[in-house]
Amino acid sequence: MTTASCDHPLDRRSFRAIADLAYRESGLTLVKEKSSMIQSRLRPRLKVLGLRDFAQYSAFVQSDAGEDERKQLISALTTNVTHFFRESHHFATLGNVLDARMDDLRKGARMRIWSAGCSNGQEAYSAAISLLERCPEAAQYDLRILATDIDPQVIAFARRGKYGERLMAGVSEPLRDGYFDAERDRKGERQFTVKPEVKNLIHFNELNLLSAWPMRGSFDVIFCRNVVIYFDVATQTSLWPRFLKALRPTGHLFLGHSERIATPEAIGFCSDGPTSYRPL
After folding, report:
1. 190 noted as active-site residue
2. 43, 86, 149, 151: which one is catalytic?
């Protein structure tokens, strides 16, 4: 498509069409108060596609030809803000889970962790480092982390495992030295690349939480933090039983600091500390 001017504001009809599509595709709830944010994040997509206004864009993104653009739309509207070892109490619990499973692991049992909505990968790498700190020989066991996100761009970023100094907040100097390779880029800024022994514990994959989950087997720990906050109550309510079914009877579900299961007992969960839940 050719380059075109796209200075027209986001009109009401186009907003509604885009909001409805985002909800259908990903469960993302967009409110009219966020129109300015939506407009600013999507305007570059109009320029890339050479579209004149949001009416053209909304028509295109809903068409058969716009299938790939729907992924770009979700990517543009999703906020991928996270950092290493966020909410450290969850990683302390993860370490305790590992300790409790060590005898089973030595006998050949499997242990699985799922980072659902892994964003740029800091959560999954934090989990892997936490496991390696407790068990340096973790790779010898059937112990793996699945990290998924709806956004293919952040999955690609996470697979690279390369972070600038600004993104390394929360990582102590000993952990930087032990689990990252440091170098300087052309601007002289330090870059940190996750070492292979950490990456090898993780499988990154694209996944929409609202679609079918292809994973077999159950998880010892599921991280789903700062994800459901973007969903409405109905979508959240539909997810809790699915997470419960995906957990081992002794498993843990971790949510973000501002997320809660309203009535956990009614679903089959019990509270197990701050934003942590276990099957009843």
Report:
1. no
2. 149
